[in-house]
Design a protein that fits this description.
120 residues; three-stranded parallel beta sheet
């Protein structure tokens, strides 16, 4: 791999405290973060909307850069029926969303940059 690909990849997976590995999900996270960064979208005041965020680290990363994020997830009853609650893929509250990114930024920053809602 050329060095210009490796350095950004390493920066992003280090930021979300995920060891580098061959993983489709990690690649998706890195691709999204790098694309937003290269297009000037990871800066204070930018707004984002995430559907089905569950317990993923991206909303926390975006808040770390000063973005205002609306993160959504499926209603708890439907998520339970689909098995997402048992597999820790669902966030039914702001606190549960925070647990996926609590090492990326302080809770006070997270709470000041967020609006959380559930899909119904």
């Amino acid at each position: 791999m050329p060095i210009d690909v490796i350095k950004p990849y390493r920066y992003w997976y280090d930021l979300i405290l995920s060891p580098g590995r061959f993983s489709r999900k990690q690649w998706e996270f890195v691709f999204i973060m790098q694309s937003l960064y290269k297009n000037g979208k990871l800066k204070p005041g930018m707004k984002g909307l995430g559907f089905g965020c569950g317990r993923e680290p991206l909303p926390g990363v975006f808040a770390k850069f000063g973005c205002i994020v609306t993160a959504t997830d499926l209603d708890p009853e439907s998520a339970h029926e689909q098995g997402w609650v048992e597999t820790m893929q669902h966030a039914a509250s702001l606190q549960e969303l925070y647990t996926s990114c609590n090492r990326v930024l302080p809770k006070s920053t997270f709470l000041s940059e967020y609006l959380f809602c559930l899909q119904i």
